[in-house]
Design brief:
By secondary structure, the chain is α+β, with helices and mostly antiparallel strands. The protein has 27 helices and 28 strands. Strands 1, 2, 4, 5, 7, 8, 9, 10, 11, 12, 13 and 14 form a twelve-stranded mixed β-sheet that branches. A five-stranded mixed β-sheet has the order 15-16-17-19-18, with helices on one face. α5 runs parallel beside α12 and α20 runs parallel beside α22. The chain is globular and about 85 Å long. The two termini are about 50 Å apart.
Length: about 850
């Protein structure tokens, strides 16, 4: 393990021996607009206290280290006395400590192009430079010398010197600002105790909209920011409305006043994740700034993310897990609270429908991989922590919390949370701390529940068997479930729920009794438990005939989910699944369900349809998408969803190439009401380029039409997607070898290499992939390396190469082996399911 990959054991020993009280961090980014300047000055002044006895030292002095990754460490002082610089590229060694000290580390940090640390972005529209930080789980050390572990909280004071006229933001409000010449010096108020990974700085000519939230005597200043060139697209009113609704909700739910003073939200370019919960300065991906039409599902998704991050102000920021084993203590709760609050107080009451269809699908996928792990995971080091921001920690954790709320009661659950915040504010906790407060509030012993749901892996599959004597609920992978079974009858060609049966099950077989001749029997109606559902043969016939007539969107979500899981598991023929989609997706009225069903149809064709039927199915899917696009109501949510689906289908089939070319050129009328916004235009152009129907000149013309950051990124994909072996080869080598590519530009290049599933153009690189991945893992950051290892994994018709690599590389870093193992499992599933398709 390199010194940059901190382990749980050594960080626990460090926090036992050293406490950090305050940290003053001074950053000078005045030269950021000069792209030839690779780094910036950073000075950290840390007030620490040591405990030799806790360190287990036989002497009275303590030796420790401070984390820093950057261009140079220039000076180290302890109590004003210079020390020799002992820095190995990741750790600054400090010796001879006893009692309380002031440690000062002067260094030079590097600007990032990978979204890790201090990311620098130059807007191609106006040439302006923008900076922002992103740290989770351990990239604060790329900006400042710090103790990079969540249980070493400090009160931070940030001082930023930046070009005059820039907006400069941090976790707290500005305490003092002075300007001299072309530079400004901004000192922010001291924070309350927080972990290093949730500190934040943003600087640049950001456009900002201000407001405030009031509750009694509390006034919270609000801000919403984005790049100046995106200002016309920033719907700040909606964002601020949801922010106010969320602050109202959580103030009532948690009964602990919002503790962080102000509440800024900033949308930043080339962001690696959806959002980050930095207290007082939440960062979001610019994908949430809609440059054109947006579906209801997109707006609901943004609202959910806003409220997810807001929940973190309490779960994660106020009370923080001690180490990344208990990452679920913040992410599972925030995922649950995001859906709960969205459904409760915003204009998106179907948030739990989206959760059942989308978040649980992510959890089910992750939980079936050989690398699945308990919600309370065993995280030995930072590389493992980085990869555990996954469907288990987020979506499965939120799913079992939803069950817990049903088990203990909603008021009891929130009362337990209130006790937890009151007892541990500004501190660090583990699983037992939370369970103790929930048990006290509910009067229930939760250890058995924890063992069954938080400390195990995998999921149950639940189905109903019925015969003349009645029905039986059957489950695999035994766990306790409280669920509901819905009974539906076909009446006037519509599936109508006639009654429900509540059941508590813990055994393999649980009798349901007489259920009559129900046409559809839906286990887990209401989505009360975490389990895959299988439909019996009669129920499958019923939903094939009338799925879209069910008037309950949540019930439809559960049916769609059951069908998709059965298809992924090879139990429902992919062709039959696609027949059901073609029959009912056009009548689906829930925006998120529609979006997911269309995406799953495309995935089914690419992964699960037998190879000899794939061309036929692709052509049929493109025709169906085209028919739905032209039939949809003008300007409707459905029209936009089908237009996007046409773009994804046209990557593989050129049957509508001439119409798409004509619409983009303006020589053929687009369907009435369809906005050909930049995202849709680039998607269609990418499809045309992939099938050989768009030229470099046309791509360049589109870039002149949309010379934005997103336009340039999309342009890279279009150029790399052209169906020419030399073009794909050049893109392949660029992805691996061009270290100047930003994170987004790397992903765009990878997308071009993989466009259209053209194995005939890239299969020659399969062996090269396995020859490169260990080297790239050691040479590049984990973010960049993971994009390459996942994105360029060969989707071949054989497991031989990946199996050989795994056998030869048992000593490879565990995080790298995990990604390769997961990709191997995806491929093995594809091959297994395709082989099981009926001829």
């Amino acid at each position: 393990m390199t010194s940059a990959n901190l382990s749980r054991a050594e960080t626990a020993a460090r926090s036992a021996a050293v406490s950090v009280l305050t940290a003053r961090v001074e950053l000078d980014v005045t030269t950021a607009p000069d792209v030839d300047e690779t780094g910036f000055a950073t000075v950290s002044t840390l007030e620490i206290e040591t405990d030799a006895a806790a360190a287990g030292s036989a002497e009275s002095h303590v030796e420790t280290w401070i984390d820093f990754i950057g261009e140079a460490v220039e000076a180290v002082e302890v109590d004003g006395v210079a020390r020799p610089v002992e820095w190995d590229g990741a750790r600054v060694r400090i010796t001879g400590l006893r009692g309380r000290h002031i440690v000062r580390v002067a260094a030079r940090a590097a600007y990032s192009r990978s979204g890790e640390g201090m990311h620098r972005f130059v807007d191609p529209v106006d040439g302006q430079t923008y900076l922002y930080t992103h740290y989770e789980p351990a990239d604060a050390r790329r900006v400042m010398a710090c103790f990079e572990q969540p249980d070493m909280k400090a009160r931070y004071t940030f001082v930023v010197t930046a070009p005059a006229g820039w907006s400069v933001l941090s976790n707290q409000a500005v305490a003092e600002r002075t300007t001299e010449g072309g530079a400004q010096r901004v000192e922010f108020a001291e924070t309350l105790p927080i972990s290093s990974y949730i500190t934040a700085v943003a600087a640049g000519p950001y456009h900002r909209v201000e407001a405030e939230w009031r509750r009694g005597d509390q006034v919270v200043p609000l801000g919403v920011s984005c790049r100046a060139s995106l200002a016309e697209h920033l719907d700040a009113d909606e964002i601020l409305e949801i922010t106010g609704q969320g602050l109202d909700f959580f103030a009532d739910a948690f009964r602990y006043p919002y503790p962080w003073g102000k509440y800024d939200q900033i949308f930043v370019p080339e962001y690696n994740i959806g959002a980050m919960e930095n207290p007082g300065l939440v960062t979001f991906t610019e994908a949430y700034v809609f440059r054109g039409a947006a579906t209801v599902a997109q707006r609901e998704g943004r609202a959910n993310t806003i409220l997810h991050e807001m929940a973190h102000m309490w779960f994660g920021d106020l009370v923080t897990m001690r180490w990344w084993d208990d990452l679920w203590l913040k992410e599972s709760f925030a995922d649950y609270m995001g859906a709960h609050a969205t459904a409760a107080v915003t204009r998106f009451p179907d948030a739990w429908v989206t959760f059942a269809a989308r978040r649980k699908a992510w959890a089910y996928l992750q939980d079936q991989l050989p690398t699945t792990h308990p919600i309370v995971a065993d995280i030995a080091d930072l590389e493992a922590a980085k990869l555990n921001f996954d469907g288990i920690t987020y979506a499965k954790g939120a799913s079992v919390l939803k069950q817990l709320v049903a088990f203990v009661g909603e008021e009891e659950f929130f009362e337990g949370a209130r006790q937890y915040f009151a007892a541990h504010a500004f501190g660090n906790t583990t699983l037992d701390d939370l369970l103790r407060h929930l048990a006290a509030a509910s009067g229930r012993d939760l250890h058995a529940w924890s063992r069954a749901w938080l400390e195990t892996t995998g999921m149950s599959t639940i189905q109903v068997e019925r015969d003349a004597e009645g029905a039986v609920l059957v489950q695999s992978d035994l766990r306790p479930h409280r669920l509901r079974v819905g009974l539906f009858d076909l009446r006037d060609e519509r599936l109508v729920r006639t009654r429900t049966i509540d059941a508590d099950i813990a055994r393999e077989r649980t009798p349901l009794g007489e259920i009559g001749a129900a046409d559809l029997v839906l286990p887990n109606d209401g989505d009360l438990t975490y389990a895959k559902v299988r439909l019996d043969a009669a129920s499958l016939d019923a939903v094939e005939a009338a799925l879209s007539t069910i008037d309950d969107a949540l019930a439809r979500a559960l049916v769609w989910s059951a069908l998709w899981n059965a298809t992924r598991d090879g139990e429902l023929p992919a062709a039959r699944y696609l027949d059901i989609v073609r029959a009912h997706a056009g009548a689906e009225t829930n925006s998120a369900l529609r979006t997911d069903v269309l995406a799953n149809a495309s995935a089914a064709i690419g992964h699960y349809v037998a190879v000899d039927r794939r061309t036929q199915e692709r052509s049929a899917w493109l025709d169906r998408a085209w028919q739905q696009l032209t039939a949809a109501d003008a300007g409707s949510d459905a029209q936009l969803a089908w237009a996007r689906s046409v773009g994804s289908a046209a990557l593989y089939d050129d049957g509508r190439a001439e119409e798409l070319r004509g619409m983009l050129a303006g020589t053929v009328a687009a369907p009435d009401g369809l906005e050909l916004d930049p995202e849709l235009r680039w998607a269609w152009l990418t499809a045309l380029a992939t099938t050989g129907h768009a030229t470099v000149a046309e791509a360049d013309a589109e870039l002149r039409r949309d010379p934005t950051a997103k336009g340039r990124t999309a342009h890279l994909t279009v150029l790399a997607a052209r169906p020419d072996a030399d073009v794909r080869a050049a893109a392949w080598h660029s992805a691996w070898e061009d270290t100047t590519l930003t994170n987004d530009h790397l992903s765009a290049t990878i997308a071009g290499v993989r466009a259209g599933g053209r194995r005939d153009l890239i299969a020659a690189f399969d062996e090269d992939y396995f020859a490169r991945i260990r080297g790239v893992w050691s040479a590049r950051s984990i973010e960049i390396a993971a994009r390459l290892v996942r994105g360029l994994f060969p989707e071949s018709e054989s497991l031989d190469l990946v199996d050989a690599w795994l056998a030869r590389n048992e000593d490879a870093p565990a995080a790298l082996r995990r990604i390769v193992t997961e990709q191997r499992d995806h491929l093995a599933r594809d091959l297994r399911v395709r082989a099981a398709q009926p001829s």
